[in-house]
Design a protein that fits this description.
This is Endoribonuclease YbeY. It is built from five helices and four strands.
Length: about 140
Amino acid sequence: MAVRFSNLDVKLVLEDKTRLKKFIAELFKRESQGLQDLQYVFCTDAYLLEINQQFLDHDTYTDIITFELSPNPDITEGEIYISVERVQENATAFEESFNRELHRVIFHGALHLCGYRDKSDTEEKLMRQKEDEYLSLYFA
């Protein structure tokens, strides 16, 4: 099992990476989802927009894009791209700290890989509940 973090054209210092990696692994365990390999890539708005256009045929900015790469639905191998600029903008808009909003997005991507969706109002409500649950556990 490996959880990795990398920066692409952005400066971001994650506090206590070891603890965060262990917590993400625990999230997968709590959700009964196997975890083989997970790469988080922190990037710019422009880079994430390019991914959104190329792979999802969307011409909009977003804070996160999640790719499941495993052929086995029970074992996660994935990549999660996060726009640091978009997270900062959302933190300001939601009157939240950057650190807490960043962790919300980190957990959001992991939850997508565990099978949670957010397309309908009901799905979005459940996703927010799960994000809040993991934020409370992490920042307790």
